Amino acid sequence: MILCPTCNKPIPPADFNIATDVAFCRACNKTIAISEVVRGFTKQPVAAGPAAPTSGTWFHDDGVETRIGASTRSPVAFFVVPFAAIWSGFSLGLIYGSQITSGKFNVVYSLFGIPFLLASLVIWSMALMLIAGKIEVRLRSGEGVIFTGMGPIGRTKRFSVSEITTIREDWSGLRTNRQPRKMIILEGARRITLGTMLNEPRRYFLLQSLRSALKINH
């Protein structure tokens, strides 16, 4: 069955004229080229365009490089920053501050404080991301770079665009207020995850825009 590209109504075989490559749609009273409609069925599906930008997102394509990104800024920072200050101030101040003020170094106390020091670094890293962090994907000459960080400081993941076969969303192992958070997954030669710190609208924008840029619709 062939559908009219104008009104999407089926055209019965009686209204085909293969010899002249013409079909007549009685619903909208128009003629169409049969070869053009059939050729449209054989084309590979193309992903929809990038999602409409929302607050804290961007999509820039200058013809050389495509930059798709989203901010990780969140009001949750108003709770995380005070917690980070109290946690690090109390734990590190008690363990290391006392050694500094007394001028005496205690190996046992210092080793005991390492887990608290590492925890403080993790908490403050999260706090800074909630204040001014971003996730940006840069595509250029068939290569992709995922940057997660604040300003020029952060971590990067590199991948080849041709290796990516699927871009989807799934649950991550992270939770916020006991609620699981979702992430974006790029699958191909290897599995790359990103976007766990993004809210729903920003993550959706990044997901759809990546599908559009990489021409992947699933």
Walk me through what this model shows.
- This protein has about 220 residues and is of the alpha+beta class.
- It folds into three domains: about 1-40, no CATH class; about 55-75 and about 135-215, PH-domain like; about 75-130, no CATH class.
- It has helices at about 35-40, 75-100, 105-110, 115-130, 200-215; strands at about 1-5, 10, 15, 20-25, 30-35, 55-60, 65-70, 135-140, 145-150, 155-160, 165-175, 180-185, 190-195.
- A hairpin with a 6-residue loop joins strand 1 and strand 2.
- Helix 2 runs antiparallel to helix 4 (about 115-130).
- It is elongated and about 100 Å long.
Describe the structure concisely.
With 218 residues, the protein is α+β, with helices and mostly antiparallel strands. The chain contains 5 helices and 13 strands. The strands form 4 sheets. A 5-stranded antiparallel beta sheet has the order 6-7-8-9-10. A 3-stranded antiparallel beta sheet has the order 3-4-5. A 3-stranded antiparallel beta sheet has the order 11-12-13, covered by helices on one side.
Q: Quaternary state, please?
A: single chain
Biggest beta sheet attributes: 5 strands, antiparallel
Helix content range: 25-40%
The coarse overall form would be elongated
What is the CATH first-level class name of the largest domain?
Mainly Beta
Q: Please give the count of helices.
A: 5
User: CATH architecture of the largest domain, please?
Assistant: Roll
Question: Which strand order do you get reading across the main beta sheet?
Answer: 6-7-8-9-10
Query: What structural category characterises the helix and strand content?
Result: alpha+beta
Distance N terminus to C terminus? 26 Å
